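Narrative summary of target 7.
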Amino acid sequence: MVQYADGAVEVEFKVPDWCQEARFGVKEVIACKSRITVDSEGKNIHSRETRKTHIWLLAVPLDPARELRGIRLSNNSCIHVFALTLAQ
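Modeled conformation, tokenized:
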């Protein structure tokens, strides 16, 4: 959600899984040929998995004529935000 001084606007933030191909208008920033995985049983066993992964760039257009008060992201622990930039 984008929160402007005169009211909030619902904006749908869609980001593909980091192991999928680009969708939803994202751009690839970083691509790797493999990833390190950890076992799901909590035994702290690490292994390298040959699977292409990505870090995506998602640009969300804002209305420059309105005063921005905030941006609220969904409560999704699978999405990690590494940087946020506001630029004109």
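The mean pLDDT is 86.
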